[in-house]
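Data deposition worksheet. Section B asks for the primary sequence of the deposited chain exactly as it was used as input, without tags or linkers unless they were present during the calculation. Section C holds the resulting structure in token form. Section D is free text for depositor observations; keep each observation to a single sentence. Incomplete worksheets are returned to the depositor.
Section A, Depositor: J.P.
Section B:
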Amino acid sequence: MAKKKPKQPSNTIALNKKVKHDYFIEERFEAGLELQGWEVKSCRASKVQLTDSYVIFKDNQAWLLGSHIQPLPEASTHFVTDPERTRRLLLHRNEIEKLMAAVDQKGYTCVATAIYWKKHLVKCEVCLAKGKAKHDKRDTEKERDWNRQKQRLLRKDF
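Section C:
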């Protein structure tokens, strides 16, 4: 009898599912996150939320706004924590310039879609996205429903 492989834990800490509904994702970038010690401990416990988070550019640096990292009660007792603080994203200069140029164009925005572990480092997936109009959202939903229905019909035939 073959041995089963132990289940690998997921590397994903937090996902921003709302982005796929509200935006067309054009390009993805991987950025490091500058975190404090208590924030890393909270990431290990998956106490992170990315809803309504976005990226701004100031002084040729990228900053993550709107992300919420909930402090653990046992990890952060001796100093004041700010769960909504602005966190610096670590990107290469040419990536920052590319993102800044695209954001200056009409309709483009830079949003965070996921935070995950890569080896022992916390990484953030940053996407260059273009906003969807209301009718685009409806079309996407109709297409998703049709694909689900096709799968059901194919399963019935077999």
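Section D:
The two ends are 30 Å apart (CA to CA).
The mean pLDDT is 87.
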